[in-house]
Specification:
Blueprint: H1 11-21, E1 31-32, E2 43-48, E3 56-62, E4 71-76, H2 96-100, E5 104-109, H3 133-151, E6 162-167, H4 169-178, E7 185-191, H5 209-222, E8 227-232, H6 240-252, E9 257-262, H7 279-292
């Protein structure tokens, strides 16, 4: 991993930091909403969206010790089966500390349409038989882009070497974000990414698998950021046959992807990234990948 860059205190950054420091606890302005707490400096933030609504994404920020500029890592949540409106604040309490220990500022935004962030559910893909997985992912990518742009203004975040990670629907949005070929992004991590799983409440039954594969190919057509795709053999949302079809379509269209299929994990490998015991499984692969893409 490249050593941190020297501290950057531009006039704009100093002004912004002063404004953020003045935000009162539980306020409704962008920035931190409470004091930091815990070893990983966990803190609730609000981050603006880019849709002109003034809506703010409820966000958790974790930070390493010190104030020197660090690489940014954004983790993107999935779509709960119980409904987007009731989604709890994502924290990734098992995965985030692993990245913080490696020097990343970790940001976990709750996207538009989910939980306390609220607003219209723009990531809906419509009816199963004609699912618009392509557009759903692109809407998620808008919120990822907004989070990256906001955090990169801060003096403790480096403008380069950003990593974007996501699980399930968040992994899918991460691939859509990669299709933008965003500057300053070193790598993306897709953990069990996709949409449309468990049609009719049945495992390994996708809404429109051909649409999912076509959309993966469309993302790959313009994505040139190195990506790591990790799926488990017993993923009940995206089985090995489907995840391989997706990554093949992505690669064949020009996308850069490393695909890893892990042995079965727990009762459902879809939980590999978020489960406490999953870190020991995926972390060696992720470390090796990120070491190759500093």
């Amino acid at each position: 991993m490249r050593p941190p860059a020297p501290t950057r205190f531009t006039a704009a950054a100093v002004v912004l930091l002063g404004l953020l420091a003045a935000v009162p606890a539980l306020g409704q302005s962008p920035g931190p909403q409470e004091p930091e707490h815990g070893q990983d400096r966990e803190q609730r933030w609000l981050i603006p969206t880019d849709d002109g609504s003034g809506r703010l994404m409820r966000t958790i920020v974790y930070r390493p010790p010190g104030e020197m500029p660090r690489r940014l890592l954004v983790i993107n949540h999935g779509a709960p089966t119980s409904g987007a409106a009731s989604a709890p604040q994502p924290r990734f309490a098992n995965a985030a500390p692993w990245f913080v220990a490696r020097g990343y500022v970790v940001v976990v935004p709750q996207r538009r349409g989910y939980g306390a962030t609220g607003g219209r559910q723009n990531e809906s893909y419509g009816h199963c038989d004609n699912a618009d997985f392509l557009g759903a992912g692109r809407e998620g990518a808008r919120d990822i882009a907004a989070a990256v742009a906001f955090m990169r203004q801060l003096p403790f975040v480096r403008p380069d070497g950003t990593v974007i990670a996501g699980h399930s629907a968040g992994g899918w949005a991460t691939l859509a974000y990669a299709s933008r070929n965003p500057p300053g992004v070193a790598a993306v991590l897709n953990f069990a990414g996709g949409r449309g799983g468990w049609r009719d409440n049945l495992p390994n039954y996708n809404c429109a698998p051909d649409n999912l594969v076509r959309a993966a190919g469309e993302y790959g057509r313009t994505a040139r950021v190195p990506s790591l795709w990790i799926y488990a053999e017993n993923d009940s949302f995206f089985d090995p046959a489907l995840s391989r079809r997706m990554v093949d379509a992505y690669r064949n269209a020009g996308g850069i992807a490393t695909y890893v299929l892990t042995p079965p994990f727990g009762q459902d490998g879809h939980s590999l990234f978020v489960a406490r015991g999953g870190v020991a499984v995926w972390s060696p692969t992720v470390k090796a990948f990120l070491d190759r893409h500093p």
